[in-house]
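Subject: Re: docking follow-up (pyridoxal-5'-phosphate)

Dear J.,

Thanks for your patience while I sorted out the input files. As discussed at Tuesday's group meeting, I've set up the holo structure prediction with pyridoxal-5'-phosphate included as the bound ligand rather than trying to dock it afterwards. The sequence and the ligand SMILES I used are pasted below, so you can double-check that they match what you have on your end before we go further.
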Amino acid sequence: MPADPDDRTALLRRLPGVDRVLAVLEPDLAVKGIPRSVLVKAVRETLDGLRAHILGDHPPVSAESLNETAVALRAARRAQKAMQPNLRAAINATGVVVHTNLGRSRLAAAAMDQLRLIAGNYSNLEFDLATGKRGSRYSAVEALLCEITGAEAGLVVNNCAAAVLIVLDTLAREREVIVSRGELVEIGGSFRVPDIMAKSGARLREVGTTNRTHRRDYENAINAETALLLKVHQSNFSISGFTKAVSLAELVALGRSHQIPVVEDLGSGTFIDFSRYGLFPEPTVQSSVAAGTDIVTFSGDKLLGGPQAGVLVGRKRWIDRIKANPLNRALRIDKMTLTAFESTLRLYRDPSRAVAEIPTLRMLTEPLAATTARAERLAARLEVLGTGQLTIRMAAAVARAGGGALPLLEIPSHCLMVQREGFRAQSIERFMRRQLPPIIGRIENDFFILDLKTVQEDELAVIETAFRHLLEKEPQ
Ligand SMILES: *Cc1c(COP(=O)(O)O)cnc(C)c1O
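The structure tokens for the complex came back this morning:
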């Protein structure tokens, strides 16, 4: 029941001033080291919150909760929260390996070591140590890219969307680009092929239908204005049934006969043939290059498992023109991305090492038995904790590659389904999400679900601690 107006006025009058709260708060060891400006802001916001509470349609607050000590305690908690980084490491228990909302790929240890070294020191970023003259920042990765993919030349920009943009801007501005209607895709996070096309000033020439596109559709659309034939990997969906697409080889042959370059946007490019690991076949960058594609574009942080970047590999004559485009300066990657990307590429020289050391590849190719064993270890830890308070079930689960890659791929995994008496799954989910580090799972049938595919061994203890905290909470 809301307080009556007289009570409200009395309560508002009881609220202490900022200075009086600060006098109690500042000597408190719990806020030691927190800048004064943060404390002042926390006190102001706490008082504003209490004022709004009193004036709002809420149950009345007690007079004791308005004294300096009580307000200072609230402000201390607020200030401590404000000191936590906004971007924080999280535990991914969703089973989606390349989870865009959770930062896509984790870097390999080798990349992290190098990142630390290059970020904290001067480097030869654009300095040629052999000649003592100015060098190119891309020389660190171009030769490696060519070595791995078999391409003549390569370039790295900010992300794959930028890679597609700069290709179109360089080679197709005010001219036509032919794309199959079945490939006018939208990738999450507002990458839409037609929109990128419009931004680049290229004109989209759609051919075929949603489900069927023939060689003759491309052929009939080719005219003096045609700048490129573009093939876009269908990334996050698949069309089945009565379908027909023109193969890359056919498109390359067509482009050759009309002297029109062919571009393939692979999106989640991979250097590893996943069918060797019993997973779905995904076209590799090497196979696209070998098919004669003039330019191949792909992401650095999807199936490649490196930092966010957009990679272009292909024929030198086109890549050289793209390098000279002023947009390249606007889309250039920084030294931290560059060094992390170089380290990741170096791992690919030995594919078995890449699969073992690049977390994205390691998780995707991990045998089910290893995931199951991890689920069992976590279950054992939680069972000891719970002593009857937690219901824990192990169940088969389906993990996903994510990141718009391998959409149909169902990766067998194992999950833990957790319930606690007196708690809805929603409140367990919220509690876990608010831990440090946050633990991100999902809800199914009023169970909180942790998929172990994406949980690392050293995170089991952290999850155990979070559940210990959960058990300290009173049921609501
Ligand atoms: C993901 C994707 C992109 C965008 O890549 P970013 O690195 O996220 O910019 C472009 N094209 C395709 C086909 C994709 O799958």
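A couple of observations from a first look. The chain has a mean pLDDT of 92. Residues 36-55 form the longest helix (20 residues).

Let me know if you'd like me to rerun anything.

Best regards,
T.
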